[in-house]
Task: structure prediction
Amino acid sequence: MDNSERTEIADLGEFGLIDRLTQNIQLKNAGSRKGVGDDAAVVSCENGLLTLVTTDLLLEGIHFDLTYVPLMHLGYKAAVVNISDIYAMNGTPKQITVSLGISKRFSVEDLENFYTGLETACNEYGVDIIGGDTSASLTGLAISITCLGEAAEDKIVYRNGAKEADLICVSGDLGGAYMGLQLLEREKRIFAGETGSFTPDFTGREYLLERQLKPRARRDVIERLAGNDILPTAMIDISDGLSSELLHICKQSMVGCRVYEEHIPIDYQTAVMAEEFNMNLVTAALNGGEDYELLFTVPLSMHEKVSTLKEVKIIGYITNSSLGTHLIARDGTEHRLKAQGWNSL
Amino acid sequence: MDNSERTEIADLGEFGLIDRLTQNIQLKNAGSRKGVGDDAAVVSCENGLLTLVTTDLLLEGIHFDLTYVPLMHLGYKAAVVNISDIYAMNGTPKQITVSLGISKRFSVEDLENFYTGLETACNEYGVDIIGGDTSASLTGLAISITCLGEAAEDKIVYRNGAKEADLICVSGDLGGAYMGLQLLEREKRIFAGETGSFTPDFTGREYLLERQLKPRARRDVIERLAGNDILPTAMIDISDGLSSELLHICKQSMVGCRVYEEHIPIDYQTAVMAEEFNMNLVTAALNGGEDYELLFTVPLSMHEKVSTLKEVKIIGYITNSSLGTHLIARDGTEHRLKAQGWNSL
Result:
């Protein structure tokens, strides 16, 4: 490795790095309709539907902690995370491939548990496991999943279609998965300090644990949108946090946005937990991540239709890019959205 | 992890483990034509061609050693390994996705080098990079690549079509990549023992290094077969070694085989190096792996056609399964093929 010209990855950030690495890639096949830069790649299948392809790499110690994540849940979540990306394109997930790098500390039964979780998720969403690769790993568990899906060309929703005055909508509620993670981390620390027997008490916090350990992909929302003839102008799933995903949509659509703190959907258990942890609730909802809810924009003319949709909230609207990307707090003050945290809160 | 019933992975082996993990998987979509169990999975695209999907996970310390593998070569090889799997289905590679898990010791330039190699291979084979995922890694470099390809339904060649009396053919020569690896490992050990300056001397061994560091996928062989109207009955690419791949074909086709030591193609440099290392040359050719040559079977009626093909050798023939899987040594003795090494040699 030549260090004569060295740029630290931290200086670019993840997305800057990806931009840098992929800037020279040119698509050569007519069938490669959409490459790097969205939730999934789009590949044409001659006549008829298009194929969607998405992939995720999950590494132990970075994406999961086996101290408190059962392998069955990990398998379930690994599949759902990819399936969610296909829904975020307004597609139907169809197949996944699964590659595992495993160290000696795992037994066959451990991996069977992982596969049980994987199969459970695939059965729920009608997805076939069609291949993969299994190899040794010198260190932790490595999981790579690729998911293929289908969609009609005129129904695919990209990140770059948001227009001025569009409504910004989000499904479900936010911050719960992050609070579930905090809860598990706390119990791990308490457990580490105990010498005798210790049973963590999660009573009343089941929802938060489920958000973290067994997330759902929002097929129901995609179906409800289709059933009501609503085609979003832009869509993304919330894996890194609302702020980060909103900024993706705004950047790729070349627009600004205004979202309202008071409209961000937050569950009661999330709010209670944030208070117990003395954490800023809105920060958790904006930056927590791993909720796998859908964030999408619809034309203003859809206001009436979209406002009656179950488990969908309008949280703001799209503006001209010159107005920037802002959150309006309950006290009326404006705060610039940032991918991690936001100013002066 | 519950150890009440613990089977060691080593007890099953890689393929046994995969069999065990995937035995309950049932394909649900009509479009999932072929799942786990071949070089690539087959997914239908409505009318017209079928989509091929293959994936590989490469982990530092297991699949590569960055002490002597330049990142550019690693990127090149990572792509070729997947592209080779598509050719092994008699398909045309079209797209790849690339996921990377990277630790702090890598700079942006390092990863650009990796991508340069990746793009070089993709350009050579007409493949588009259409997506991926980049994340942190606590330990070594993790690389996951998925490759999509196309093929007409009646041209796809699986592993399970070999018939009694078919000829067994192999492209190029074998054992070279393994000898290249031995050479690099030796230079690494010498280097580690030196205190002063040391320049490894690879003169006259360039071919072996190229086999290890810059393997090629045999598009030319696929094209030559098609140009001569030869459709193999079974095919696989040689990643784990000739023995291992032959056993895959025989097992899935429910047949036996007889291959002849004297017909196994071996390059002069490979032979010289084996002597220098005091290694059994045939063992290297049978079990070395990483040659990425094509192993295929054709009907006996194709004998004349196939024997004139450039860089293709007939090494034996398919038998009834009751006759087993054997190598016939130069002295006429028979040896049962094993995935790793073979008896009494």
